[in-house]
Specification:
Strand content: over 45%
CATH class of the largest domain: Mainly Beta
Strand order of the largest sheet: 19-22-33-24-25-26-27-30-31
Mean pLDDT: 87
Number of helices: 2
CATH superfamily of the largest domain: Exo-inulinase, domain 1
CATH topology of the largest domain: Jelly Rolls
Number of strands: 41
Shape: globular
Number of domains: 3
């Protein structure tokens, strides 16, 4: 916090400094001198959020909360107010209250400028909002509109003379109406606008109530606009209700950004193939039990399901890493100290894994620091919570009982398959599961310990496994996944004495449908179709080292910068001329990011009139 301004002049005698027109404000417009009429906000567009978290009962005019706006809400006509409570939705968790436009005869219109124009350059812009319409007279219309220089370029809501949801665009010259979606309803609206930045048509997909935790499918869009003209983007938002009759609508949880993650808080990743991710980024010194919560990957907390006794499952500072990897967060340590007890800690997946023909990858780090006692196990186990036998444990990956080596075991069969790799020190465990969409045909599993990180492991190079029956092969099969998997268990336990001590650490648990998504080097965002440079940044999340890759199609000067969400430049990574072709930059942050909080940042590249922006996640 700070509570004063200071002025300072020092150095060689005779230096003189002059200050004038000092402004301090919450919005860009508040810090521009009133006689400066041609000043534009900084060029970098930022995420815009509005949850209408204002006191209920007041007028919307002049309210200036949220993020990414260039000024407060302004009354154009009529009166809009703040209604108590958020719009109820299972797609978005509401914060605060909601905006209410209760119009009868007299038009109601309110507008708010964005911090900067969205889509002034070729890019993809996402938008979402909650819209609740309680009643609409046939002659009335209204909804939410995007503006460019004060004129609407895209409006979604009610159209006069029609009862179903409609969209008007290109200055009102074109309109579409849904065949079955009534405008009187509660809707979570999602739009993806692919903007070309030139004179060719822009494309927009609009969905109503899509899943909040997966990228919406284009085939499920209610509206597809292939002839939209948004060449100069949009710079403001309007809430409006007009007509001689009545129109009552409410809006809530407005969000505009550059990925589905930006506008859907329940979405875990811009990578739809990453199904579960656990970096154990909880406070060091705390128990793993009770950590976590509900998000796009998980459906609850880590829960104790064993006989913990005086054993411990603790979060430790630091993470597990190998050359070529950069995990984030902390790690968890399991200290198995009491014979005959169990450390079994479960977390429910947000969405079950099904034996439906999918390929799944499971990867994690495991670091055993005391593992000389043989009669114990330590692994990551996939469970079905609805099956009582073997406590629902279907298959586990890690230390095999009475061997001190890595392997796999299916508790329903109770036949362990053991590799020749000892469970000693730090190891990266990789498992591939190929399911078959046939209840009578077994699924197949392969395991690798410390495979090369860069390319997908070859099944021909999988670990050689020896079964307790004497069989030797590089895979094992079974139908134990046919009932589905809805829980991940991390465990350490033993039996028959000579079990303790066993101390091991786990980190970076990932479950994915693709190898790229399962490896710790996976990018969170793929290059977008409209990206002129194919700009990539990985790993993302990152902690201390970030690699950038981009392709230039023409020679000339280019500049690459790291910014915060307010558009402030934190670091210039490149500012020079590049020949055509693919370039790679490595940014070692050193101490330059000390003091910055974990969270979202931006990386921006410009070359001439081309620009590309990527979201980064700093996660230490």
């Amino acid at each position: 916090n700070w509570n004063a301004l200071g002025f300072k002049v020092e150095g060689t005698a005779g230096v003189q400094a002059t200050w004038d027109d000092i402004y301090l404000g919450r919005q860009f417009g508040e810090v521009v001198p009133p006689d400066w009429t041609a000043v534009n906000p900084p060029e970098i567009p930022v995420l815009a959020l509005e949850s209408f978290d204002y006191p209920a009962g007041g007028d919307l005019d002049g309210l200036d909360g949220g993020e990414g706006w260039g000024g407060p809400w302004a009354q154009v006509a009529g009166s809009a107010s703040i209604a108590s409570g958020s719009i109820a939705s299972d797609r978005v968790d509401g914060i605060g209250n909601r905006a209410l436009l209760d119009q009868s005869s007299t038009a109601v219109t309110y507008e708010r400028p964005f911090f900067n124009r969205f889509g002034a350059f070729r890019t993809t812009v996402w938008m979402s909002f909650l819209l609740q319409v309680d009643n609409k007279s046939i002659g009335n219309g209204g909804g939410l509109a995007l503006l460019r220089n004060g004129s609407p370029v895209l409006t979604l809501g009610g159209i006069p003379g029609l009862s179903n949801l409609g969209v008007t665009y290109n200055g009102g010259a074109t309109s579409l109406t849904a065949s079955s979606q009534s405008v009187v309803d509660t809707m979570w609206v999602v739009a993806r606008m692919r903007l070309t930045g030139d004179n060719t048509a822009d494309t927009t997909f609009i969905w109503i109530n899509p899943p909040a935790d997966a990228l919406p499918a284009e085939a499920n869009a209610l509206f597809v606009l292939n002839d939209l003209d948004l060449d100069e983007g949009f710079d403001a938002l309007r809430l409006t209700a007009t007509g001689l009759g009545s129109f009552r609508m409410m809006a809530d949880e407005l969000a505009v950004g550059f990925s589905f993650r930006d506008i859907s808080p329940k979405f875990g990743s811009d990578d739809p193939n990453l199904l579960a991710y656990e970096p154990f980024n909880y406070d060091a010194g705390t128990s793993l039990i009770g950590q976590g919560g509900v998000n796009a990957f998980w459906d609850g907390l880590w829960e104790n399901k064993g006989n913990l006794s005086t054993n411990e499952a603790e979060i430790l500072a630091g993470n597990l890493s190998q050359p070529g990897f950069e995990p984030v967060g902390n790690k968890t340590e399991f200290r198995y100290l009491n014979d005959g007890t169990q450390i079994r800690i479960d977390r429910r997946l947000a969405f079950p894994l099904e034996s439906d023909g999918s390929t799944y990858w499971v990867t994690f780090f495991m670091n055993t620091t005391d593992g000389t006692a043989p009669n114990n196990v330590g692994n990551v186990t996939l469970r079905n919570s609805g099956i009582a036998g073997a406590d629902g444990q279907r298959v586990g990956f890690g230390r095999i009982f009475n061997t001190n080596r890595f392997g796999m075991i299916a508790p329903p069969q109770n036949i362990p398959w053991t590799s020749q790799v000892p469970d000693d020190g730090l190891n990266w465990v990789v498992v591939k599961i190929q399911t078959v969409d046939d209840l009578t045909v077994p699924d197949t599993l392969w395991m690798w310990v410390n495979p090369p990180a860069g390319t997908e492991p070859d099944t021909a190079a999988a670990e050689v496994l020896t079964a307790s029956t004497g069989a030797v092969q590089k895979y094992f099969t079974g139908t134990f996944l046919k009932d589905g998997i809805d829980v991940v268990r991390v465990k350490a336990e033993g039996v028959n004495g000579n079990e303790t001590p066993y101390v091991t650490e786990f980190d970076e648990i990932r479950i994915a449908r693709s190898w790229t998504s399962a490896s710790t080097a996976t990018r969170l965002e793929d290059p977008r179709e409209w990206d002129p440079f194919g700009l990539q940044a990985f790993p993302n999340p990152f902690a201390t080292v970030l690699t950038l890759r981009f392709t230039t199609s023409r020679p000339g000067p280019a500049r690459v910068e790291v910014l915060d969400l307010q558009g402030r430049v934190l670091e210039v990574l490149a500012d020079g001329s590049y020949p055509p072709g693919t370039q790679t930059l490595t940014w070692e942050t050193g101490d330059r990011l000390q003091g910055l909080p974990n969270g979202y940042y931006l990386i921006r590249m410009r070359q001439g009139d081309l620009v590309s922006t990527r979201r980064l996640i700093l996660y230490r």
